[in-house]
């Protein structure tokens, strides 16, 4: 959907769903990543990152970790209802990241059909629109899409 | 700690109550429980009330417990608002048990009440979805359940037919329950052919929002005899846990398993001793996962269990004789205490047409919320005749 | 029941924290308390979290406790969300005391956290006002306080100057409190000449919304010695009540009086034994009403008490050495545990420049909400060195 | 404020703040009243009426009672802030009704000034606007106004 003349805004704003959650490429060749936290002591990694490791439960063990560029589709479901602003049907999934953690994500860049999706398929991180807000802005977030040719 | 028993229970019918708000629903549940307990109302010295969505969906924006209980005529005593998503009702009960077990009070009343069927259904849906932070990314609970069931299909070869069989069983039970929102038995065909909501889940496999209230009054065994001639139902365990971290380098024990192990140990019984279970099947096929998580059946046996009718009212262990959440409707904070009500009726032998024969030990499983890749809370209660 | 002591307390500074949400505020308060208690975090087996407005004012719409404590690294244990309007913090503490006193657990942690300073201040104001059903008729809490103070003026001849003197005292105390939102002492002139909000209340007499968190860790006396070399502070009473009906044909006993009488009896002390009080002065001059309601002074003596400086830090009984709600700010569910923190610091002798000399017995009064013409809840806690 | 041509609604709707709370006169000569509940056993009266008497705490003792036509100003404050849609300043008060109960109410039909209000003055019930809602409807409720000539 293109911005029409006379819209309240000159162009739609792209607003991250939350600050500090992911890195959005600013220049060509740059890649997006998820901003997670990894425990220096036990290796536990969580996304979104929390300040204290829930396994060690002591302060100062978590450090920022940039993860999630690649992953594999662990499981999914095509959901045929959605909240206002979101697209229906949507592909909801668990993605097993290369670094270990399994995270919940929407899948994008592919038809929401059983045939187009295979458990174990290679996925890559993209930062793209998950919904339009009431003011017509695009709310962007992390999502995964099938790696071309995989 | 003193032995605590359930003296009385009560609930409203679950479903759409356009003429009733939280105060009216709560009042009805409270007075049903008071009547069932045969207790002078002034002997109730403390009340806990669970509610999850009132602040978002009704005109009450706080101290909902006090608004509800004062409407019902109860003022002056300690009144405490608790919330634990869908586990709120059990959480209120747990607190009441502690008040009585500790000797702090001889009697306590737990109430769960929820108003979800409002004119603006989008608001209700959003209140459900945004109960977890993932909501803002597009997360839907139904998709989560669907993915968990899909794993079951892949791992153990379960089919959509297995899932539908759970709904056949539960809607048959629910049809016998005067408190259930839906009282129509459903066929395999109807269930499988209803609209796909989130594959493999169809519409008739999913619970619906509802309005409703439920309450339980607990006391000591000695006091129970003083008030009521009904069989006091002993609370052998009521264990609450929250979720644990999930990580690629460690096996994640399901929250229901952790809670039920604690409960079995505390009650001194095993899963093989349980005669009747009310479990938290917000999507009915999730029952199959729960069989295994509670240790009722062994790994990978859930499909065979439903095929062989082991969880029917006349089976090895009756699961959801009330009809479960999909038949009863799911007014979130009332659900836990409705489960308790059903088990109390079953153990007393008061469950009418849906009575489980010779039920002596019952269990409820009441899970809720979603935080950091696990349920926010899960409560398991074991009740004995 | 076992004797329960406060092992550690902690709080955030109260005020505007644009960069912090409920999770960050709660985490800071929790870890401050853990550090103060010198306890291995894994020895904390149960957590209660109070929050009142998160569902209305933040992106968290339920199981706020689990969202907060998992952010702080605490997962798996029972986690319970409680709410009791401005009394939520004390309500969480009361539950923790019962967990430990009963022997259910040896340690428990109570947390109160609130986020009120959001971009859309009208939403915050509405969340406050609609906490009572009267909000929809145009009711404002400030008007209620103003009317109660007006009655005091008519009955005992109290003046606006008396009211301003309370603020002079409390802002002087608050200026010495690093956790207070406002640290500027105010003069009689400034206070009386600030904008009239609701006669006789001026702007500088009223507490403000704030963000903040506070936490307390309780255990048994024996365990306390094991963990920490700091003086364990005994909880002699923590009594919670709700409002009572008001009627033309009966004298209405104020909720603070009912709660404090229960607390004095349980603690085995009288108002004359209290050295230091943190009371719930959402509008600072309300302190004068509370002196009488708690039995600190006799009927009609509150004016003389403030005139004679009896409630100064060096007076007969120090009231609000922390600065009270008007200096500290009032993040509703955190307030009760901030009061507890202050009394613990005072009884330990750790209150620095605002230390009450030789304080041995302290009290908090934490009231909140409005239902059927009385406060929804009031909690009184008595702490002993 | 008059309804302008082109407004979404032909005329403003008058919507009671809550159903079952008060009687609004439908015909000339009819008087408004509050719908309260009174205990047959102990005489306790509350408004808004509750179904169970909080003093007797037993079912079936409360019956509907029509009260509140007259009262006296017990105490008041002029409040100089208001929620959206409400008027500021407002006069907030406790009114002692002829039948005994003391209820919270806004005062209307008089200047919000200390001079215009006297503790003990005679008040009468009126059903009138307390605020405008977002759609321009008038939300009406019970309020009290000084009795003319008192
Ligand atoms: Zn670690
Ligand atoms: Zn009565």
Describe this structure in words.
Chain A has 150 residues and is an all-beta fold. Chain A has one domain. Chain A has strands spanning 14-16, 22-23, 33-39, 45-46, 62-67, 70-79, 90-97, 102-107, 122-132, 138-146. Chain A starts with 13 loop residues before the first strand and ends with a strand. With 385 residues, chain B is α/β, with parallel strands linked by helices. Chain B has 2 domains: 4-120 and 210-234, 3-Layer(aba) Sandwich (Peroxisomal Thiolase, Chain A, domain 1); 133-207 and 237-384, Thiolase/Chalcone synthase (Peroxisomal Thiolase, Chain A, domain 1), CATH 3.40.47.10. Chain B has 14 helices and 12 strands. Chain B has helices at residues 22-37, 54-57, 64-71, 88-101, 121-129, 141-156, 160-174, 188-193, 221-227, 255-267, 286-293, 302-307, 324-328, 332-348; strands at residues 4-11, 47-50, 79-83, 107-114, 196-198, 201-202, 212-220, 233-241, 276-278, 318-319, 361-368, 377-384. In chain B, the strands form 2 sheets. In chain B, strands 3-2-4-7-1-8-12-11-9-10 form a 10-stranded mixed β-sheet, sandwiched between helices. In chain B, strands 5-6 form a two-stranded antiparallel sheet. In chain B, a hairpin with an 8-residue loop joins β11 (361-368) and β12 (377-384). The chains are: A mainly beta (150), B alpha/beta (385). β3 of chain B pairs antiparallel with β3 of chain C.
């Amino acid at each position: 959907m293109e911005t029409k003349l006379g819209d309240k805004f000159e162009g739609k704003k792209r607003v991250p769903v939350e600050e500090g959650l992911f890195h959005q490429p600013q220049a060509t060749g740059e890649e997006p990543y998820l901003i997670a936290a990894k425990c220096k002591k036990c290796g536990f990694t969580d996304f979104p990152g929390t300040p204290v490791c829930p396994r060690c439960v002591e302060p100062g063990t978590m450090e920022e970790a940039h993860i999630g560029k690649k992953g594999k589709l662990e499981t999914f479901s095509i959901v045929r209802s959605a909240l206002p602003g979101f697209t229906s049907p949507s592909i909801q999934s668990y993605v097993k990241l290369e670094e270990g953690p399994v995270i919940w994500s929407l899948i994008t860049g592919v038809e929401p059909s059983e045939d187009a999706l295979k458990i174990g398929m290679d996925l890559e991180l993209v930062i793209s629109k998950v919904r339009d807000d009431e003011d017509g802005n695009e709310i962007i977030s992390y999502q995964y899409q099938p790696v071309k040719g995989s | 700690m003193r032995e605590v028993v359930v003296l009385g229970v009560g609930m409203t019918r679950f479903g759409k109550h356009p003429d009733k708000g939280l105060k009216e629903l709560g009042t009805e549940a409270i007075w049903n429980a008071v009547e069932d307990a045969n207790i002078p109302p002034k002997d109730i010295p403390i009340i806990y009330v669970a509610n999850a969505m009132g602040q978002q969906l009704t005109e009450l924006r706080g101290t909902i417990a006090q608004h509800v209980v004062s409407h019902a005529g109860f003022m002056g005593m300690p009144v405490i608002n608790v919330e634990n998503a869908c586990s709120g009702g059990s959480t209120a009960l747990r607190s009441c048990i502690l008040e009585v077990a500790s000797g702090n009070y001889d009697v306590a009343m737990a109430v769960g009440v929820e108003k979800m069927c409002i004119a603006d259904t989008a608001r209700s849906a959003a209140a459900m979805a945004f109960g977890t932070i993932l909501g803002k990314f597009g997360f839907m609970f139904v998709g989560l359940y669907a993915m968990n069931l899909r794993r079951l299909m892949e791992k153990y070869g379960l089919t959509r037919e297995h899932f539908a069989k759970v709904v056949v069983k539960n809607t048959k039970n629910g049809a016998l329950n005067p408190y259930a929102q839906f009282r129509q038995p459903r066929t395999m065909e109807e269930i499988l052919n209803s609209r796909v909501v989130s594959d493999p889940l169809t519409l008739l496999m999913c619970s619906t929002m509802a309005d409703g209230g439920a309450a339980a009054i607990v006391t000591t065994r000695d006091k129970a005899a003083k008030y009521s001639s009904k069989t006091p139902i002993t609370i052998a365990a009521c264990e609450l846990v929250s979720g644990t971290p999930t990580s690629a380098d460690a096996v994640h024990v399901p929250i229901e398993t952790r809670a039920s192990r604690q409960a079995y140990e505390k009650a001194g019984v095993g899963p093989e001793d349980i005669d009747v279970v009310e479990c938290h099947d917000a999507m009915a096929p999730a029952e199959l996962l729960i069989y295994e998580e509670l240790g009722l059946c062994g790994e990978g046996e859930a499909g065979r269990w439903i095929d062989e009718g082991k969880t029917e009212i006349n089976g090895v262990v009756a699961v959801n004789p009330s009809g479960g959440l999909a038949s009863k409707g799911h007014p979130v904070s009332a659900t836990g205490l409705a489960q308790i009500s059903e088990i109390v009726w079953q153990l007393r032998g008061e469950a009418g047409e849906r009575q489980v024969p010779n039920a002596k030990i019952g269990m409820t499983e009441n899970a809720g919320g979603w935080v950091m890749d696990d349920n926010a809370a899960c409560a398991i209660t074991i009740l004995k005749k």
